[in-house]
Design a protein that fits this description.
By secondary structure, this protein is of the alpha+beta class. It has helices spanning 21-63, 73-76, 81-126, 131-160, 172-187, 208-224, 282-292, 316-321, and strands at 168-171, 194-196, 203-206, 232-239, 242-248, 296-301, 306-313. It has a five-stranded mixed beta sheet with strand order 2-4-5-7-6.
C-alpha cells in the first residue's frame, strides 16, 4: 500500500519574510503602477491635449482678428491626424489673412480712386458750363466710376472664389479675331497693327469668358501703351502639355524692378511707358483669371517693348481631331 506523505523544509532565518514585506508590497502594488499611470497620462497630455489647446488658442486669436497667429512647428510637423489638422488650420489662417488684406487694400484704393472723379464732378457742377457740356462730363465721369467699381469687385471675386471653372476647348486664333474686332472698334486702331502669328492648331483648355477677359485686358494694355503706329503681335509655341503664348508691344517696356509690380492692383507706373488711362486693374484681373485656369502670366522686356507671357493648358483632343490629313501618293510605275 502507498501512503501519502508531506515534506517539511525549514528555511534559514535570512529567507523568512520580515519587516520589509509591507514595504515591497507597497512598491510593487502601488508605486510602480502609479508611476506607469503618471507617465501614460503625461504622454497622452503632450500628445493630445497640448496640440488641441494650441488649436483652441488659434481659433480664439481669429475671433480677436489676430489672423497672423500660427501653430508651433512641433504640431504642424506631426505625421498623424492632429498634424494634418494643424497644417489645415495654418493654411486657412494664411488664406484668411491674405483675403482680408486684399479686401482692405482694395477698399482703400477704391476710395482713393473715387475721390478724383467726384472732385471733377463737384467742380463741373459749380462751374459755368453749358447744360450739354455738363451732361457730357457727368456721363463720362459716371462711366469711369462704374468701370472702376466693376473691375474692383471682379478682382475681389477672382481672388476669393475657389470653385473650379467649367472648361472647354478654345481656339486662340478665333478668340483673337473676336477680341481684335472689338479692340479696333473701341480704340480706332487699324487692324494691320494687331497681328497674330498663332495658327489654327492652337487649342487650349479653359473657361471661354474668363480667358477672353484676361486676353482682352492684356490687349487693351498693349494698345494703350503702344505709340502711334506701333505693332501689337500675338505669338506662341507648344511646350509639352501647355501652350506658351506671348503678346508683344512697342511701348518701350518697363523697369526691371517693376515687371512684377505691374500685376498689383491700382499700380500705374509714372513715366515708364507712354499712354495713359485705366485704373491699374487690368493686369491684376488677367493674372487672377489665368491662374484660376491652371495657367501662369508673367512679363518681360524685349528691348523695344513689353512682352506678356501666358502658359495655358493645351487641348490635344480637339487639335488632333481637326488636324489636316496628308495623303501620300505612290509613284506610278511606267
Amino acid at each position: 500500500d502507498s501512503s501519502v506523505g508531506s515534506v517539511v523544509i525549514e528555511l534559514p532565518q535570512r529567507f523568512k519574510p520580515g519587516r520589509y514585506r509591507v514595504f515591497w508590497r507597497v512598491i510593487t502594488n502601488g508605486v510602480i503602477p502609479g508611476l506607469f499611470t503618471l507617465l501614460l497620462c503625461v504622454g497622452l497630455y503632450r500628445l493630445l491635449v497640448v496640440p488641441l489647446n494650441q488649436l483652441r488658442e488659434q481659433a480664439n486669436a481669429w475671433r480677436a482678428d489676430q489672423l497672423g497667429v500660427r501653430l508651433s512647428s512641433r504640431t504642424t510637423n506631426r505625421c498623424d491626424e492632429l498634424g494634418e489638422l494643424g497644417r489645415a488650420f495654418d493654411h486657412m489662417s494664411e488664406r484668411l489673412q491674405s483675403t482680408v488684406a486684399l479686401q482692405q487694400q482694395l477698399l482703400r484704393d477704391l476710395s482713393h480712386e473715387l475721390r478724383t472723379p467726384l472732385s471733377r464732378l463737384r467742380v463741373a457742377s459749380e462751374g459755368e458750363q453749358s447744360l450739354v457740356q455738363l451732361r457730357e462730363r457727368i456721363g463720362r465721369e459716371v462711366d469711369g466710376m462704374q468701370r472702376l467699381v466693376e473691375d474692383t469687385l471682379q478682382l475681389a471675386w477672382l481672388d476669393t472664389e475657389r470653385t473650379p471653372l467649367p472648361d472647354e476647348a478654345i481656339q486662340i486664333q478665333a478668340l483673337w479675331e473676336m477680341l481684335t474686332d472689338n479692340a479696333c472698334y473701341e480704340s480706332c486702331c487699324p487692324t494691320d497693327q494687331l497681328q497674330c502669328a498663332v495658327d489654327s492648331s492652337c487649342w487650349v483648355r479653359g473657361n471661354l469668358n474668363t480667358l477672353a477677359q484676361a486676353l482682352e485686358n492684356i490687349l487693351r494694355n498693349a494698345i494703350r501703351h503702344s505709340p502711334k503706329g506701333g505693332i501689337v503681335r500675338l505669338d506662341g509655341r507648344r511646350e509639352g502639355g501647355y501652350w506658351h503664348l506671348w503678346l508683344e508691344d512697342e511701348g518701350g517696356g518697363v523697369a526691371e524692378e517693376d515687371l512684377e509690380r505691374i500685376f498689383s492692383p491700382f499700380t500705374r507706373l509714372d513715366g515708364s511707358r507712354p499712354g495713359n488711362g485705366g485704373f491699374g486693374l487690368g493686369l491684376s484681373i488677367a493674372r487672377n483669371a489665368v491662374q484660376r485656369q491652371g495657367g501662369r502670366l508673367w512679363a518681360e522686356n524685349t528691348g523695344t517693348g513689353l512682352r506678356l507671357n501666358m502658359r495655358l493648358v493645351a487641348d490635344d483632343a480637339i487639335a488632333s481631331r481637326l488636324a489636316p490629313t496628308v495623303d501620300v501618293c505612290r509613284p506610278q510605275v511606267v
